[in-house]
Amino acid sequence: MFPGKAAALVLLCAIFFHNPVVGAPPDPCTIRQKKRILLECDPVHRTPFFKPDPDSTCCMAVRMVPRRNMLCIVSKLTREDKAKYSARKILGFKDACKLSSAPFLHHQVKSYNNC
């Protein structure tokens, strides 16, 4: 009787805790995201170093990629893309486009003491 209960318990656990692998995980970025970054950020080889403004459309496109994974975007570059665009510049967009946790101060307030 005990082996039957143990087998039933193992079968019950296998049913409840079964987590099948359905296939490879989806890519963290898409071709559409790559094209948008190439259009908005224009990381061409011949231009000097480019650091986009955090509020720019370039950074908005970068933030649409999960975890700002620019390595994924670089992996989607075609041979023609690699000849035209700088992978180094694209990889730099991850840090350039992160949002600061500190509030932006657009002006300073001076305090005058009349004492």
Automatic annotation (TrEMBL):
This is Bifunctional inhibitor/plant lipid transfer protein/seed storage helical domain-containing protein. Keywords: Signal. It comes from Dichanthelium oligosanthes. Residues 1-23 form the signal peptide. The lineage of its organism: Eukaryota, Viridiplantae, Streptophyta, Embryophyta, Tracheophyta. The keyword Signal applies.
